[in-house]
Amino acid sequence: MKILQHQYIERDTSRVMTERLYGDRIISYFYNSEREQTSALFRALSSPYVSSFLSLVNYDLPGLSRLAGAHRFVDRLGINLSECVEPPERLNTAKKIFERQIRYWETRPMPDERAAVVSPADGRVLVGSLAETSQFFLKEKFFNIDELLGPDYSLWQEAFDGGDFAIFRLTPDKYHYNHMPVAGRVLAIYDISGCYYPANPSAVVTVATPYSKNKRIVTIIDTDTAGGTQVGLVALIEIVALMIGDIVQCYSQQRYENPLCIHPGMFLEKGCPKSLYRPGSSTDMLVFQKNRVCFCDDIIANMRHQGACSRYSQGFGSQLVETDVQVRSLIGRAVAAGNGNREPWRKT
Question: What is the Cα–Cα distance from 128 to 162, expressed in whole angstroms?
Fold first, then answer.
């Protein structure tokens, strides 16, 4: 079986980088065009039981974690421990490294402007649109919007009809806290059960609309409020993948101090830690209302980069190249709302 390489653009240097995908060979073996022949095994691999077991073996068992070697884990994935809150000697297991806290207030600067929309994670981003008139129309490539937001939430499905989105793929080497991409008030937060398909690009292009099938937490934020980013409604969707055991909501307004569970009515500040993925790879999604966000030019240009080989491009038939971004870095800006009828989710 020939495994195709996967490349992305390093944002700071604009260099084309080849990614060494974690567990790539075995994932590519099971997630291919002939997977129907092993459907029972395939279903088992995407179950929460198998995902939890693999997470336990790879990250949670102290003996196995130390046997595998925390330092080898760091070296292989190129993790920078110097930016961590804890000293390196205390990060002596794979799980501790995965769940590390960083001095983001020093190492992940954030733009000052109110209209700035920032990355919720250290990850590799693609942007797209649900509007058929857009040059970035990607309907039902990565997700089905109604399924993604949940069949019982027609109000939000209507609100985001024809909108824009950004997908952030977190690889195992990444810092796995999610931060607020915008400032605003929480209108709703709910979880949707589902599978545990890997975030590996080979799996994504093989499974139809995988992001709306995996277990996920949806947070709806109203930013058109006092102190908000003024980018309309924003849906932040935190999506599990293989070996993710949990998504812990732990909002902290000051560094990582006094973490809080999130509930409707809370005002959340942009750039603050919101949640933590427990080990594995995972995905964040942002969904915006139609014509309310303008994504950064470099992210858009990188998607069409002709010198990079992307499995998304090969799988979906159009050039789709990711850009590696840091949490709290600029990904777009708010577009002022036009005149129209009062939205049904706003109180009169």
Answer: 11
Question: What mean pLDDT is reported for the chain?
Answer: 84
pLDDT in tens, 279-288: 766 899 999 9
Spatial CB neighbours of 170, under 8 Å, sequence gap ≥ 6: 121, 122, 123, 176, 199, 277, 281, 282, 283, 284
Distances (CA, A) of 340 to 41, 158, 337, 343: 51, 15, 9, 8
Predicted model pTM: 0.86
pLDDT at 348 exceeding the cut of 50 = no
Q: Pairing relation of β-strands 164-170 and 273-278?
A: unpaired
- Encode the chain in three state secondary structure: CCCCCCEEEECCCCCEEECCCCCHHHHHHHCCCCHHHHHHHHHHHCCHHHHHHHHHHHHHCHHHHHHHCHHHHHHHHCCCHHHECCCHHHCCCHHHHHCCCECHHHHCCCCCCCCEEECCCCEEEEEEECCCCCCCECCCCCCCHHHHHCCCCHHHHHHCCCCEEEEEEECCCCCCEEECCCCEEEEEEEEECCECCCCCHHHHHHCCCHHHCECEEEEEEECCCCCCCCCCEEEEEEECCCCCCEEEECECCCCCCCCECCCCCCEECCCCEEEEEECCCEEEEEEECCCCEEECHHHHHHHCCCCCCCHHHHHHCCCCCCEEECCCCEEEEECCCCCCCCCCCCCC
Residue 233: which residues within 8 A CB-CB, separation 6 or more?
156, 159, 160, 187, 220, 221, 222, 223, 224, 288, 289, 343, 345
Instruction: Look at the block and give the residue holding tokens 């858009």.
Output: 300
Alpha-carbon span 8 to 305, nearest angstrom: 9
Looking at per-residue confidence, does 169 or 40 come out higher?
Answer: 169
State the residue for tokens 């970035």: 136
CA 323 to chain centroid, in Å, comes to 13
Residue in this structure with the two tokens 């932040």, named with its chain if needed: 236
Separation CA 285–CA 126 (nearest Å): 10
